[in-house]
Amino acid sequence: MITPTLKTDRFIIRAFKKCDLEYFSKYRSLPEVAKYQSWTDFSYTDSLALFEKIDYSKFAILGQWYQLAICIRESNILVGDLAVHFVDKSQVEIGFTTAPKYQKQNVASEAVSALTTYLFEKLNIHRITAKTDARNIASYRLLEKLGFRREAHFHQNIFFKGSWSDEYLYALLHSEYNNL
Questions:
Q1: Element counts in the chain: helices (H) and strands (E)
Q2: What is the C-alpha radius of gyration for the chain, rounded to an integer number of angstroms?
Q3: How many domains does the chain contain in total?
Q4: Could you report the per-residue pLDDT of 98-135, keeping only the tens digit for each?
Q5: Domain for residue 174, yes or no?
Q6: Does 1 map to a domain?
Q7: What is the Cα–Cα distance from 138 to 11, expressed in whole angstroms?
Q8: Residue 146 to residues 22, 26, 28, 130, 173: CA-CA distances in angstroms?
């Protein structure tokens, strides 16, 4: 299966292109973006390595992560990205990052909503999950706005950037999505 191209009113969600990588590495290396992420610095070399590792011609392979670009429809300008991990045949884990210039504009909300629709309606996924740092209020509020429910609060489960941190696990079932 080839990586899908999803369209919303404002955005196109698609496979990354090499021309996206410079801006991708710039916004991901910003301290305000990296604050709740597993990385501290995200160089162009890191972006290129990630890009070269993903086989976009084989989308939805179990155990694989795929990075998708969120771009403005009219200009194709990169504004953020989605991460999609096919855990098994029935479950997918997602993540999302928005460039600071485009935060507080419902970019991630619109993109995650489109991805959720695709995963449930086209791939018939049973369950979508997302983990977030418990301090990342914007992230967990977005998930709750889209109907995800908090399934777990992991207390000091991860040693993260010099201290122990809490994480929340959110999930949405296909049956719950149908009732939204």
A1: 6, 8
A2: 16
A3: 1
A4: 999 999 999 999 999 999 999 999 999 999 999 999 99
A5: yes
A6: no
A7: 20
A8: 30, 28, 24, 12, 12
